[in-house]
Amino acid sequence: MGFLDEVPRLDRLIERLESSEGLDDLQIVIEELRDGYSIDHMLYHWVNSNGDQYGCGTYPLDWVNRYVEKGYLRVDPVIIGCFQRFHPVDWKRLDWSGKAARAFMQDAINHGIGNQGYSIPIRGPNGQFAHFTLSHNCSDEDWQEFTTKNRRDLILIAHSFNQKALDFQPGRTPEPSQSLSPREIEAMTLLAIGYSRAQAADTLSISEHTLRVYVESARHKLGALNTTHAVARALNRGLIVI
Amino acid sequence: MGFLDEVPRLDRLIERLESSEGLDDLQIVIEELRDGYSIDHMLYHWVNSNGDQYGCGTYPLDWVNRYVEKGYLRVDPVIIGCFQRFHPVDWKRLDWSGKAARAFMQDAINHGIGNQGYSIPIRGPNGQFAHFTLSHNCSDEDWQEFTTKNRRDLILIAHSFNQKALDFQPGRTPEPSQSLSPREIEAMTLLAIGYSRAQAADTLSISEHTLRVYVESARHKLGALNTTHAVARALNRGLIVI
DNA sequence: ATCCTACTCCCCAAAAACTGCGAGGGGGCG
DNA sequence: CGCCCCCTCGCAGTTTTTGGGGAGTAGGAT
């Protein structure tokens, strides 16, 4: 039975997923999911804000190692594309125009990754990001049919999988950082959108000295080395939004 | 037939949702969804980065107006809670301890919002955020049963609804920006993690002058007013990750 | 083959940010 | 009531960043 005919029962898959009891178990689950859909590969890949990664899936081990060693995280169009997208995306719709991207794809195919792929971005607070990816070797038409048919189920599986993975790795959700006071938030937000200290102070109708106090205070709370760093951290932690 | 017995067919709901053809249509769809589940209220609520809001749902109009006027966005535990959470959440698990939060809840109930609620956070790139919320008036046990039974379907509906809402409001998704060169990315990343220009230049083993060229170049590409702004934009657009 | 982009280096003066200090009023919470 | 946090304002000297300029090499794209 080919991967186009196979339509596993969603509730059974989800039940199996939700009954998993640890990270090792998730590895088994994802292999079962892969087999259930009769495709080549399935992957859950978490990317931490600082570039740390956690993954589990059916990609060949040497490819995973190569990926990490080569720093492909910064090249991989799947990561880049998913990161700035809302919705699941077929790999064909990603940007493969760069030289590095094409070299990466060739390298991936050489390591047994399929020519087709479908990736579902998953997000959490503070820019936390993961993606759930399927890969296979087949024609464009077949892949189109497969993804169209299974899209909904896959979205649900992706989110359930992410939930489970998070449950088992509580450390990945950073402790909520010290929050900023309303004035500090306003000050940092204005700086983040390009205002100089003088402009920001003017906008808030306070003296520049006062504004500086806020920025300093925020900087200390955030453990930042300078204003730019503080703004970056505040953005990263979702304390301010621009 | 009560809301506990009613289990609408998911595929029909999604089909109806995906066949919608505009924002007005979505309003009708969400009313149909609400009726389909036989609950009091259903709401899709988008919160823009700058505090702008877009919503559609079955909340009473005077409550919606009051919500906007009173600036409840900054008080609403549903917003605050969903914003820092990964997964769907029952309103009972939110933090209602603050004085403002309790006053808000009382006000909401007075305006016909149910005592029970379930909210699904939805996220996009750049901290974009929405939530899909159900509300009803019933006992804790009944609500527990309802949410447990329909959780999966609701997650899928929430994401599909968000996708549709985005399709109809293309302005909400910012156009992808010009990408940065590798050196520019390195430079901006180092600045974003707190390095001074001198330190960053040293780290990259280039002169500070050269580093400045990168930063300037990145700033121009990003249309940023200064370095801090450029770093903020680069982070926001996912061009750099810290 | 040619053009364009990325990468590297240099100068200089003005503007802005950083560091660290001190000080008082208001509000919430135990 | 006292404590702590938030908001507001001030001074001053040092360091850093920020505006533009120009100029050469190398490699990829058309």
Automatic annotation (TrEMBL), chains A, B:
Q: Which domain of life is it from?
A: Bacteria
Q: Which UniProt keywords apply?
A: DNA-binding, Transcription, Transcription regulation
Q: Does the keyword Transcription apply?
A: yes
Indicate whether Transcription appears among the record's keywords.
Answer: yes
Select a single GO molecular function from the record's annotations and give it. Answer: DNA binding
Which processes are annotated in GO (biological process)? regulation of DNA-templated transcription
SUPFAM superfamilies to which the protein is assigned, alphabetical = C-terminal effector domain of the bipartite response regulators, Pheromone-binding domain of LuxR-like quorum-sensing transcription factors
Which residue range or ranges hold the HTH luxR-type domain? 173-238
Pfam family name, one: GerE
PANTHER family named in the record = DNA-BINDING TRANSCRIPTIONAL ACTIVATOR DEVR_DOSR
Name of the molecule in the record: HTH-type quorum sensing-dependent transcriptional regulator VjbR
Q: Which organism is it from?
A: Pelagimonas phthalicica
Q: Which gene encodes it?
A: vjbR
